[in-house]
Amino acid sequence: GQYLDVLLDGGRRRSFSIASPPHDAARLELHVRRAPGGGFSDTVFEAMPVGTLLKVEAPIGQFFYEPSAAPLLLIAGGTGFAPIKSILRHVLEVEGSTRPLHLYWGARAAIDVYEHETVRRWAAGHPNLRVVPVLSAPGGDACWRRGWVHEAAAGDLGAEIARHDVYVAGPPALVEAVRARFPEQGVEPGRIRFDSFDYAPR
Question: Has this prediction a pTM greater than 0.85?
């Protein structure tokens, strides 16, 4: 659940969540969304050769996993899947937990659920893991859920949501929606852990 800062010239920084879990951190995995006109992401995708040295500061952040026997609800928005992936891999590969695990991954379009096949394989190998992609844009594959990811999770779990530990990562609007709605359904605010993604200041 931690993140790192890539240190750029002129005192600028770009923050990225660490997608690899501690038990498999020989190489750090980052999920970099290519933002049109993004100074750093354009460099990564177009001009940064393999082997480029980067200055980083890590680990940073308060979004970390706390072991528990409670059912686990993980909600990712876009590349908010990165820290969620780290937590989920730890639970599946280190804890070997059999408690109920729910992963809701919200994105605009199906292409933005960029590791769907990976999480689908995890669900096939772990009967206690349920994976629900939710798309906010209309059209596309009719078999995918449509709407807002936090509303899908709240609707599916109903009153049972109050039993869950909740981890949410992604855009600030998603995080704030979860923090506002879920306590209304009985989730104790202290059981909601969050990582709110935002663009770095210029």
Answer: yes
